[in-house]
Amino acid sequence: MTTLYPLPDNHPQRFQLHNEVHARSPVNLELPVKSTHLALKLEGDDKKLDREHLLYLCERFSITPPKQDFNHFTASFGSFHLRWEQHGEFSSYTFYVKNGHDEPFKTPALDTVPVDWMSGLPGQLMVASHAMILSSAEIKGEIDQLNQYFAGNALIGAEVSGGAAKAYTDFKIHVDGFSRFLIVNDHLKNAQAGRLLQRLFEIEDYRVMALLAFPVARELAPTLVQADKQLIDITSAMASTDSDDSGLLDELTTLASEIESLVSSNHYRFGAANAYFKLVNQRIEDLRETRIQGLQTFSEFMTRRLVPAISTCETTAKRFSLLSERISNAGELLRTRVNISIERQNQDLLKSMNTHAKMQLRLQSTVEGLSIIAITSYAVSLISSMAQAMKSAGWDINPPVIIGSSIPIVLVCAAIGVRRIHKLIRKVDDE
């Protein structure tokens, strides 16, 4: 009997997080089997439409649909078994059908899916693959004879799943618009076969999704070359003693904004390519390949064909980062030069202001002396008038003597008064 303990409340996502490790489990297949896999890139409202389209199929076959927050779903629809997954930017549909003794790829699993429903799938098709798992008794031909199932193309293949099967493909899109995988079963178990098919389809999905960044890298290459040349021209001009630093700084700022805009708009694409590439390598490692004499293995094919493209994407992203860093360094250097130039101009301005202040002080001293003389002249004139008036009134005075003796007294008093006024003005300014 189960004992219930008084435990704290569950975290709202406890069970969802716990069950995440069991999500997207492989389908337990009944061998032999044939399968068709589709991967569609979703943009905008396509995710919502994709889920609605799946719900429509479930209603049509009276199947319980997945919950709203589920991103994976597996169910049997009578004539076919469906596995649906919705990823960050694409959705995948894998259809499984019990295979009879049909010739490989003659009647694919997709033939059992309603045509009208298929035509309404939202998104853009990125991957379309047919796969068949046949027993080794049904496929007895040599490698050269297996080429007939791949239109004579060079095969890529290996023993997989610890030698339980052999997997072949050519990684090409055939005239029907589908790529092909052929698995020759030696002693695969049902669950093991589901994992193998899932890994092969995911290799194809992640390989194509990783390559979405390659056209972007090639398109940006001329822009990088032009921007690098422009930066070299700017830094060369900076070395000149008569360079227009302000104009160069404006040009550098414009270049920096253009590069940062490109970095921001393409950062996700390059980051996603790196993540997808890691998933491809992980899925190939999960295959546990053993070489078949005369064939390239999956890992060798990806090393020769996929790695150069991903390296180009990584190099482009690094060049953008380095170019942005170089522009930033040049900008700091140029701004330092502009600031130093401004400081020198300010110093020259301060020297000029200091010179003007000294000249003004000298002029003020001159005016001050003239003002004292003017005050003295005016006061002596008044004293002269008063002395003349007193003489006319009968006073016994000598006006010229009085006028002459008053001049130094008035001069000293005027000088002392003017100085006191200047002191009061300076005191008010200091406050």
Key attributes of the depicted protein:
9 helices, alpha+beta, Methane Monooxygenase Hydroxylase, Chain G, domain 1, single chain, 431 residues, 9-stranded mixed β-sheet, 9 strands
Commentary on this structure:
The protein is 57% helix and 14% strand. It has helices at 14-19, 46-60, 115-119, 143-146, 190-210, 213-238, 245-287, 298-392, 399-430, and strands spanning 33-41, 72-76, 81-86, 90-98, 124-135, 156-160, 165-169, 179-185, 290-291. Strand 3 (81-86) and strand 4 form a beta hairpin. Helix 6 packs antiparallel against helix 7 (245-287), helix 6 (213-238) packs parallel to helix 8 (298-392) and helix 7 (245-287) runs antiparallel to helix 8. It is elongated.
Map the helices and strands.
Blueprint: H1 14-19, E1 33-41, H2 46-60, E2 72-76, E3 81-86, E4 90-98, H3 115-119, E5 124-135, H4 143-146, E6 156-160, E7 165-169, E8 179-185, H5 190-210, H6 213-238, H7 245-287, E9 290-291, H8 298-392, H9 399-430
Parallel strand pairs: 5-8
Antiparallel strand pairs: 1-4, 1-5, 2-3, 3-4, 6-7, 6-9, 7-8
